[in-house]
UniProtKB/TrEMBL annotation:
It comes from Alexandrium catenella. PANTHER family: POLY A -SPECIFIC RIBONUCLEASE/TARGET OF EGR1, MEMBER 1, POLY(A)-SPECIFIC RIBONUCLEASE PNLDC1. This is CSD domain-containing protein. PROSITE patterns: CSD_2 (PS51857). Belongs to the CAF1 family.
Length: 590
């Protein structure tokens, strides 16, 4: 087939939060950040593009959700306004040199104590100015948003490699600044934007048995897939490279071009070649992987595929047979240094050892789909290794994590609490949730961090799980809008005001919930409804109403970690290297 590849630098948004370690990663792979700022194509989301360009729209808090996040930049993160960054470049700032020179934290707390304080202050900027934003808006409606619309209209599938973070970031950048929290709504958004779906070649790497021993690294995976195709078919797939693609990336067809790795155009070029080989050799497996995503350091994959016939959506599922997941704990230094070598040697000596493993951390390996008899033989060759089934290991690791440093700090996975957002300060970046049940247990209100509160407001009722900090104080995680069940007691048709009796909300606030004009109809009086509500000036006001409550998606608890570690940064517009924050804790989640 014909192949054309393009590299397009997307210019940063008007205000964005970035991580210096992510920028350093790009510099190590020869990405010119000065060109990114100077020549990058600017863009807006569909939501932003649909708004008029009047300055008042910006001044009224159009960008408040992102500004709120940016106000607390710290550690290796810093906040920046793109317009002023471009002005700094024109004044002589070398962004490449600045990024390469950074060591440790670059947050506000360091700006007055470092040699580069002047430059750092130029990057650590105040919230967006409405007039400047509106000037940018008109020119940013063209360019990449137009290209995004063309890609959607073409109806072609999107192919990625380890691309969950990228897909979510695309949706957040070009469609909805704040992505839906409900899995079904997120899946619907993905289907509407990309009707032919997304294929993640990294997930196929895990699910295709004959390719699992290949390194996941894109260039290595391409080479393995090409060699397997040639052995199976007796011939190579032929590609016709067009114009500049042949000139720039032609060497990649022959396994060369290492210096181009992580350049967007070259990586997409390799991904296209890889997918072509996988599709030609394994059409059925490729078809089944539609809208399913590989998750780094996890036994699960993420499914954003809408079910047929109204069936329940499975948000996450095991990549491998859950009954054949084994963890090898490397108990001493000799085992940690030599076990991988011994496994490789066992493979070379006996083809029976065709299993593979994944590294959890330096002391633990995950071994999926290994038959018991083979495992017994393997154990005899690996001294200093303790073997457990995955779920036993996971339970013990969770307990060990809960008592880390001698302090008990469990995440209460099985219980969700219900409370009201008592206060929230965008300037300080935190607030508190009042919850009677939590107060009885902990003797205080629940701390709410801004990353958890991005989509919620003061007075709103939420459900959440609790995780204690190092001081044993409760912190809210995995917030969801809380739905209540009640009976419509009265309705004044003329004014539209009604009263809803609900035991749960009455126990919390000692008042009935009040509906306003248009929320209820005559035929609902005396009937059961489901509603959300917020507390405003002592009144419990109904926000949403529905007659029947949709079944709650009982997702695997892995999704809590996904929201906090993957989806959260995408929702808030944080530019981060996708795997930087993912640790062994993801294995503990599901």
């Amino acid at each position: 087939g014909k192949l054309s590849s393009y590299s397009i630098m997307m210019a940063p948004e008007s205000t964005f939060l970035c991580d210096v370690e992510a920028l350093q990663f790009l510099r190590r792979h020869n990405i010119d950040l000065n060109v990114w700022v100077d020549q990058g194509v600017r863009y807006v989301s569909q939501e932003e593009a649909a708004l008029p360009t009047a300055p008042s729209m910006c001044q009224e808090g159009l960008f408040e959700p992102l500004v709120r996040i940016c106000e607390q930049a710290q550690g290796t993160a810093f906040k920046c306004q793109a317009q002023r960054l471009r002005e700094a470049r024109q004044a002589g700032l070398d962004l490449n040199a600045w990024v390469e020179a950074q060591q440790g934290t670059v947050g506000k707390e360091d700006s007055s104590r470092s040699e580069g304080a002047d430059q750092r202050r130029r990057l650590d900027l105040s919230p967006s100015d409405g007039a400047a934003l509106s000037e940018d808006l008109a020119c940013r409606k063209a360019g990449l948003p137009k290209l995004w619309r063309m890609l959607k209209e073409a109806g072609r599938p999107l192919v990625v490699h380890c691309g969950l973070h990228d897909v979510l970031f695309l949706l957040a950048s070009f469609e909805q600044r704040v992505l839906p929290r409900e899995p079904a709504k997120l899946a619907k958004l993905l289907q509407d934007c990309l009707p032919s779906g997304v294929y993640d070649t990294a997930l196929l790497h895990e699910s295709l048995r004959h390719l699992r021993l290949s390194p996941l690294r894109l260039s290595d995976f391409v080479r393995t897939a090409r060699e397997h195709h040639q052995r199976k078919r007796g011939t190579e797939l032929q590609f016709v490279l067009e114009g500049l693609t042949a000139q720039r990336y032609g060497s990649g067809l022959h396994g060369q071009g290492e210096e181009l790795i992580h350049e967007a155009g070259f990586d997409s070029f390799l991904t296209a070649i890889l997918f072509s080989h996988l599709q030609d050799d394994n059409p059925s497996e490729v078809s089944q992987s539609n809208n399913r995503f590989y998750i780094h350091k996890s036994t699960d994959y993420l499914s954003l595929k809408l079910p047929a016939g109204g069936n329940k959506m499975a948000f996450s599922s095991k990549v491998h047979d859950g009954e054949k997941l084994v963890v090898a704990t490397l108990c001493d230094q000799d085992a940690q240094e030599n076990t991988r070598k011994r496994i490789s040697e066992a493979r070379r000596q006996d083809r029976e050892y065709d299993f593979f493993y994944r590294k959890i951390d330096d002391s633990c390996l995950l071994i999926p789909n290994c038959e018991q008899a083979k495992l017994v033989k393997l154990a005899a060759k690996l001294p200093g290794v303790e073997w457990k089934d995955f779920y036993s290991w996971q339970k013990g690791a969770r307990q060990q994590e809960a008592y880390r440093d001698g302090i008990y700090r469990p995440l209460e996975r099985s219980r969700r609490f219900v409370g009201t957002i008592k206060s929230f300060s965008p300037q300080k970046g935190y607030g508190f949730i009042v919850c009677q049940d939590c107060f009885r247990i902990y003797g205080c209100d629940v701390f709410l961090h801004q990353l958890q509160a991005a989509c919620f407001q003061e007075g709103q009722h939420v459900s959440f799980v609790i995780q204690c900090n190092a001081n044993g104080q409760p912190q809210a995680r995995d917030l969801e809008e809380q739905w209540f069940t009640g009976v419509v007691r009265t309705l004044d048709v003329r004014s539209g005001f009604g009263r809803i009796a609900c035991p749960t909300t009455y126990r919390m606030h000692s008042v009935d919930a009040i509906s306003r004009n248009g929320q209820l109809s005559d035929d609902q009086v005396g009937g059961c409804i489901h509603f959300t509500a917020s507390l405003t000036r002592g009144q419990l006001l109904v926000q949403q109403v529905r007659r029947t409550l949709e079944p709650r998606q009982e997702d695997d608890r892995l999704t809590v970690d996904l929201v906090n570690q993957i989806l959260g940064p995408c929702r808030e517009g944080v530019l981060q290297h996708p795997d930087r924050r993912l640790t062994r804790s993801v294995y503990l989640g599901g």
